[in-house]
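TL;DR need C-alpha cells for one chain.
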Amino acid sequence: MAERPTLKPWIEAIHAYVPGKSKTSDGRPLVKLSANENPLGCSPKVLEALAGKHQPNFYPDPDATALREAIGAAHGIDPARIVCGTGSGELLHCAVQAFAGPGDEVLFPRFSFSLYPLLAWKVGAEVVMADAVDYEPNVDTLLAAVTPRTRVVLLDNPNNPVGTWLPRSEVERLHAGLPADVLLVVDQAYAEFLEDGLDDGGMELAARADNVLVMRTFSKAFGIAGERVGWATGAPHLVDALNRLRGAFNVTASGQMAALAALSDPEFVRCARDANNASMKRFIDDLTALGNHGVRCLPSKANFVLVVFEGDLDATTALEAIGEAGYAVRHLPGQGLPEALRITIGTPDQMDDITAVLRRLCEGAA
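>> reply
TL;DR here they are.
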C-alpha cells in the first residue's frame, strides 16, 4: 500500500506552464514584451465599469447571461451557442477533456500555443505534432498525421508563436479532410488584429458543423488579460459538453463587467489593432535591413513577431542583450525554437529600443 496519494503517471510527467518573464535574475523589473499584452491597456469604459460598481460578496452570474447576449449580438450568434470561461484556456481544456483521454491522440501543428501539449497530457492523451513548412502550420501535414486514434485537432489561427494565418480556403480544407468524429478547435485568440475583410471562416464552420468549436479571448486586443475572460461557440452538444466541465462560477463578476464594457467600445479595439499593425510593420521593416546578418522576421497577423536568428548572432545572445536593455521577450527552446525570439509589439519607442539593440549586436558581430 502506498504511503501517500499517488499521482496519475501522465500528470506526474507534466511540467507546469511557464509564463513570460517579467524580472531579471537579480530581481530588476523588465518591460514585459513576452506575454502579448496590449501596450495601450484597456478601454476607459472598462476602467469605469470596474470602479467599485459590483459587490464582491455575491457570486457572479454562473451563466454569464448578459455577457453571452452581448457577444451574440456582436457576432450574430445565438447566445445559447456561447459558453464563457476563465480565459479561453479553461475552455480549451474542457474541449480536450470532453473528447480525449488515455489512448487517444490530440493533434496540432508543431509550432503552436505552448498550452496545447499540457491540455493533452492532463487527460492522459498522446501529443501529436504535425510538421511545419518553414515554421508555418500546414494543412497537408496535419491531415497526413490523422490516425484512427485522433480525437481533437487544435489550430491557433493566427498562430502563436509564429504569427502566421491560414485563410478560409485552408481551414475549410482541413475541416473537410477530418473524420466527422474528430473535433476541430479553431483558436482565434488574435483574430481582432486581422485587417478588415480577413476571416478564416471558423465562425461559419462552428455555426453549421457538428464537430467545430471556435475560441476567442478578451486578453489580447481588448486588453483585459488580468480579468481572465474567454468564450467559445459551436453546435449545441459541444457547448453543452463545455458547460458540463467548466467551473460553476468561472467568470468573476468583475470579469463579466469588464468584458461587457470592452465590447461596448469597438473603437478602442480598432485603435489597438491599427497601432499594433503600424508598429509591427515598422519593426519588421527595420529588422529586415539586418537580413544580411541572418536576422529574419516571420510575417505576423498577431501582436508579436517571431524573429529567427540564422547567422553569427544567436538568439541566446540577443535575449541577454535585450534583457540588459530592460526588456523581457520570449525565448522558445522548449517549443523547438532555440533559434528564435517571440517579441510582443509594444509602443513605438519600445520597438525602436529593441531594434537598436539588435542592430548594435549585428554590427558588432560583422
